[in-house]
Amino acid sequence: MFHGPLLGRFQGEVQIKNASRIYDSATSLIIPEKNICEAFLPKGILSRLDQENEFIREGMRITFKLFKEMNETCRQNNIEFVVTVIPTKEMVFSDFLEHKPELPLSDVLDKLIANERGAREKTFKFLSDSNIRYVDPLPALKGSVDHELYTRTAADMHPNKNGYRVIAQAISQSFETGAVAK
Question: Does pTM top 0.90 for this prediction?
Answer without folding.
Answer: no
